[in-house]
Amino acid sequence: MPKERLPNNFLWGGAASANQCEGAYNEDG
Questions:
Q1: What is the Cα–Cα distance from 14 to 17, expressed in whole angstroms?
Q2: How far apart are CA 1 and CA 13, in angstroms?
Q3: Rounded to an integer, what distance in angstroms lies between the CA atom of residue 2 and that of residue 5?
Q4: What pLDDT does 25 receive?
Q5: CA distance 18 to 21
Q6: Which pLDDT score is estimated for 6?
Q7: What is the DSSP letter of 29?
Q8: Exposure pattern of 6-25 as b/e (b: 16+ CB <10 Å)?
Q9: What digits encode the pLDDT tens for the residues 1-29?
Q10: Given this model, what pLDDT does residue 23 score?
C-alpha cells in the first residue's frame, strides 16, 4: 500500500509545479 501512496504524491507535486510554471510565465508576459 505504501508504494501506491508514494507515486500518488509525486504525480500531484509534478502536475502542480508544471501548472504554476506555465501560469507564471503567462501572467508575467
A1: 5
A2: 19
A3: 5
A4: 61
A5: 5
A6: 56
A7: -
A8: eeeeeeeeeeeeeeeeeeee
A9: 555 555 555 555 555 565 555 656 666 55
A10: 59
pLDDT at 3: 52
| Cα separation, 15 vs 12, whole angstroms | 5
**Residues present in the chain in total:** 29
- Residue found by looking up cell 502542480 in the block: 16
Angle of CA points 6, 14, 23, to nearest 5°? 155
Tell the burial category of 5 from Cβ atoms under 10 Å away from its Cβ (0-12, 13-18, 19+): exposed
